[in-house]
Specification:
The complex is a heterodimer of chains A (374) and B (548). Chain A is mainly alpha-helical and 374 residues long. In chain A, the strands form 2 sheets. A two-stranded antiparallel sheet of chain A has the order 1-4. In chain A, strands 2-3 form a two-stranded antiparallel ribbon. In chain B, the strands form 2 sheets. Chain B has a 4-stranded antiparallel beta sheet. Chain B has a two-stranded antiparallel sheet with strand order 5-6. Classes of the chains: A mainly alpha (374), B mainly alpha (548).
Chain lengths: 374, 548
């Protein structure tokens, strides 16, 4: 399957490159009367889908190739988003309602006198970008180090990742925590001096998202293709055996988990300037689970399937929540149920079915082992 | 001569004769009742003051009514306060309109007839008069023959600290025979002394002693006020020592109250989590739709409440509990048969599929019952609260603790004393071995899932009594339930009970220290760290059953 998948991957990258060039062109250079014109809101929407696709690739790296179903990846995404949001907040400066040059509006509103330490340096773009990578990465490192070292696996791991994002969800809701409470961060003005309202900034953000998706795919693909990646997949299929052979299973998992969290953080950082807001609801456990279904629908362990799944499901979501708002949850629910029941390899797996040699029935041994766990 | 006029004449004759005979007796009676007649005359004078319809006169009349306390006083004052007191200055008549609209003579209470309603005019009141009316009503009820009313009136004065009620209060205190009312009166007196500027040091010392005995937050703030008003060192000292004694007492009761809250939270958690522990224990899959089973149970209670005739409402729970168990249990069995069965070897995907089921169920309930909260009322035996010392215990929470204990005992009996329970434990401990011994694991899975879901339905009945019934009801409890199961370990209901107790208590004991949200976060982090040390929970199964 791998060779065919790599061909598809190349096609995927090519399409993304074309999109990264064509979308700004259609949005900026084509006259609004033309049939090919892309209005800025559409560019923004597509950019949002690409950010979800990056998150899906990140999740697929750990779930599809390492067997870790993280139900807390939304937390890494949101943390990256908050880091970007903090930079954007500091850029507002005196244009806020209270016109305070240092403090964001909500701090003035809460009667705070000085900037909390956590906000220091966020007016400087490189520092903010460092944090976009560092905060999710360090959280994943600490969390994963504890979890993998003590051999928390399977559903237990899923549940505690969910608890992690739930804890952050609650914490960020508090006004005292210092990140805008339940309103979150919003009313952004500009990014690196470019107004977020202008069509050209939106187009640039779309292209940046497309490039980030290419990079995320390339990094993940490189990891999987390496010797390390083979070991990772072996851990997924038979963790105990790998340990008995002498591999430090926890280190393999930890590395993949941290890389995945960093990619998710970058996705969040690109997402926030495009949607114009970041609030604690991004930490909601439901978001992380939804990301898992993108991956499952598109095809677990294929990377591009995950990305396409994210785009397809979110396109459907945009359409259905607009056209039949009452039925969207039925649709999403059925997608979860039918997708897992009938498409264990996702849509891409279905498409690739004919092209691969029939796999030997080796999975069943480990599957039974897994199922026998209490 | 018509028959009617004949009758009338006969009656008149009789009356004349009677009057002649009865007159001396009447005179005697009048003499005996002179006291009450004087009072009646005083009432006439009082009522006459209303006729002027001037504020000072009305105020005087209110004061007289309060002081003399004739039986009609309460009705008159009530009417005055509501702008229902009517005067007809031309006829020197004071009357009031009842809430039902009938016009009654203020003095006699008899219906006023033959007077044009338009001839009446309302007695005007202003805010000062209104508060005077309230005070007067308070002192009137202080003298009420019913001890229950007197008690309520005394407690009322304690709350309002109305110094105007003091004379009436002291008069009643002197002759009060009921010890409970006397205590309440004394407390009310102390409250007045504590807040009044003119109280003597003796009064204040007495007030401190009384309040110290009461020893609650009201007493604490009253003594605080008192201490600020006084300059007398003896009073100040007494106030300080009373305050510190009340403070200790309150702190102890506060801890007890938090323990009670914790116990209550634990019982709710146990109900919500115990079904999850069964399904997770037996099948090793986490049912993300478990919260929706709870929600269905709550809606079953709501439906029962709607369908039952009013005469059976107080028995609603007797219908709701079995119905909720059956509804949630059947839905659970359907989920197991239709979805989970096929995902057996893929526990992670079960998470996703059951999450999808939960979305569908939520939306289904939203479509059927609407997105807004539904009200489920407590049956009479579950409403209200009572005090144990400084502890306030709400009856519904008490019953939920009883219910969760019963459910726990019932499940233990099912697990320990029935063949089904034996087989279920066998499958939990070692599925393949159990299958080899001839146990139909598929059947056990189905029944265990039904049982766990049914118990979740019962949890929903309990939650409907303390929480809003809405499509999102289950979501609020699901993560905490996971934590309980993960913490307590599977395959042992004691682990679940212990986990629920610990998490519930820790939650409520942390709450006053660091706030509710912070407490929950600390607890989540603790559990996350705890799982690192004991990945299989506190009461993990040991031995061959566990695959490392």
């Amino acid at each position: 399957m791998s060779a065919r998948l790599d061909q598809l991957g190349l096609g995927f990258v090519a399409i993304l490159i074309v999109a990264a060039i064509l979308v700004p062109f259609l949005s900026l250079a084509v006259s609004p009367d033309s049939a090919f014109y892309l209005p800025p809101y559409l560019v923004q929407l597509l950019g949002k889908y690409l950010c979800y696709a990056i998150l899906a690739v990140a999740l697929d790296l750990v779930w599809g190739y390492c067997g870790i179903l993280s139900l807390g990846h939304g937390a890494f995404f949101a943390l990256g988003g908050y880091a970007m949001g903090m930079y954007l907040m500091r850029q507002i400066g005196t244009r806020g309602v209270y016109a305070n040059p240092i403090l964001p509006d909500f701090m003035v509103f809460l009667n705070w006198k000085e900037l909390p330490v956590a906000w220091w340096g966020f007016n400087w773009f490189p520092y903010a970008m460092l944090m976009v990578v560092l905060v999710p990465g360090l959280l994943a490192l600490a969390f994963g180090w504890f979890a993998f070292r003590s051999r928390v696996t399977g559903v237990y791991l899923s549940i505690i990742t969910q608890a992690m994002t739930f804890a952050l969800f609650k914490e960020f809701f508090r006004n005292d925590f210092g990140f805008g409470g339940n309103n979150g961060l919003t009313d952004f003005k500009d990014l690196l001096g470019f107004s977020l309202q202008s069509a050209s900034t939106k187009a640039a953000l779309f292209s940046a998202s497309a490039i980030a998706l290419i990079v995320a795919y390339a990094v993940s693909r490189a990891i999987i293709g390496s010797k390390y990646g083979k070991a990772l997949m072996a851990v997924r299929d038979a963790e105990s055996r790998m340990r008995f052979i002498g591999y430090r299973v926890e280190n393999y998992k930890l590395f993949a988990f941290v890389v995945s969290a960093v990619i998710a953080g970058v996705a969040g950082a690109l997402y926030v300037p495009q949607v114009g807001i970041i609030n604690p609801s991004e930490f909601a456990p439901a978001n992380s689970i939804e990301a898992a279904i993108w991956v499952a629908v598109g095809g677990r362990g294929t990377l591009i399937g995950a990305a396409l799944g994210a785009i397809a499901v979110n396109f459907a979501k945009t359409y259905f929540t607009g056209a039949f708002p009452e039925y969207w949850l039925y649709g999403l629910g059925l997608l979860f149920v039918l997708g897992t029941l009938f498409l264990p390899k996702g849509l891409l797996g279905l498409a690739l079915k004919g092209s691969e040699p029939k796999p030997r029935e080796v999975i069943s041994v480990d599957a039974v082992e897994e199922g026998a766990e209490p | 001569m018509t028959p009617l006029s004949a009758c009338r004449r006969a009656a008149h004759d009789l009356a004349t004769r009677l009057r002649l005979r009865v007159a001396p007796a009447l005179a005697l009676l009048a003499l005996l009742l002179s006291a009450s007649l004087v009072r009646a005359d005083a009432l006439d004078d009082t009522l006459a003051k209303f006729l002027d319809d001037k504020f000072p006169q009305t105020a005087a009349a209110i004061g007289e009514l309060a002081a003399e306390a004739p039986p009609q006083a309460a009705a008159i004052l009530d009417a005055l306060g509501d702008n229902r007191l009517l005067i007809d200055p031309a006829d020197h008549l004071v009357a009031y309109k009842t809430v039902a609209g009938q016009i009654l003579n203020a003095k006699t209470g008899a219906p006023v007839e033959g007077v044009d309603a338009a001839a009446f005019k309302k007695v005007r009141v202003n805010n000062a008069l209104r508060s005077a009316i309230e005070g007067a009503m308070g002192s009137l009820t202080l003298a009420n023959p019913d001890p229950g009313k007197r008690l309520a009136a005394a407690q009322d004065v304690f709350r309002t600290r109305d110094a105007k009620a003091l004379p009436a209060l002291e008069a009643q205190l002197a002759k009060e025979s009921d010890p409970r009312v006397a205590a309440a009166l004394k407390l009310a007196q102390a409250a007045i002394f504590a807040t009044s500027d003119s109280a003597t040091p003796q009064d204040r010392l007495a007030a401190i002693a009384t309040l110290k005995e009461r020893g609650d937050e009201d007493a604490q703030s009253l003594i605080d006020t008192l201490a600020q008003k006084t300059t007398d060192p003896a009073v100040k000292g007494a106030a300080a020592s009373a305050l510190s004694s009340i403070h200790t007492r309150l702190a102890l009761w506060g801890v007890a109250q938090n323990l009670w809250y914790g116990l209550s939270a634990s019982s709710v958690l146990l109900l919500a989590a115990i079904g999850l522990a069964i399904t997770f224990g037996v099948m090793g899959v986490i049912n993300m739709a478990h919260g929706e089973m709870v929600m269905l149970g709550a809606y079953a209670t709501y439906v029962v409440q709607i369908l039952l005739p009013p005469s059976l409402q107080s028995w609603s729970l007797a219908f709701a509990i079995p119905l909720a168990f059956v509804v949630s249990g059947l839905v659970g069995i359907a989920i197991e048969r239709l979805v989970i069965r096929f995902l057996y070897t893929r526990p992670l995907e079960t998470l996703l599929a059951t999450w999808g089921v939960s979305l569908i169920l939520q939306q289904l309930v939203r479509s059927l019952f609407g997105a807004s909260n539904r009200q489920v009322s407590n049956p009479p035996f579950m409403s209200g609260a009572f005090d144990v010392g400084g502890l306030s215990i709400t009856t519904n929470r008490l019953w939920i603790i009883v219910l969760s204990a019963l459910v726990f005992i019932g499940l233990q009996l099912v697990l320990r004393a029935t063949p089904f329970g034996l087989q279920m434990r066998a499958v939990t401990q070692n599925r393949r071995m159990a299958a080899s011994m001839g146990i139909s694991t598929a059947r056990i899975d189905m029944l265990a899932f039904g049982l766990g879901s049914g118990v979740a339905g019962i949890a929903g009945v309990a939650l409907s009594q303390i929480d809003n019934v809405s499509p999102n009801l289950g979501q609020g409890y699901i993560i905490d339930s996971f934590m309980v199961v993960v913490f307590g370990g599977v395959g042992n209901l004691w682990g679940t009970a212990f986990g629920a107790l610990l998490i519930g208590l820790a939650n409520k004991l942390l709450e006053p220290l660091i706030g509710a949200v912070q407490g929950q976060i600390v607890l989540l982090i603790f559990i996350i760290l705890f799982i690192q040390r004991r990945p299989r929970g506190l009461f993990a199964l040991r031995g061959r059953a566990v695959e490392a």
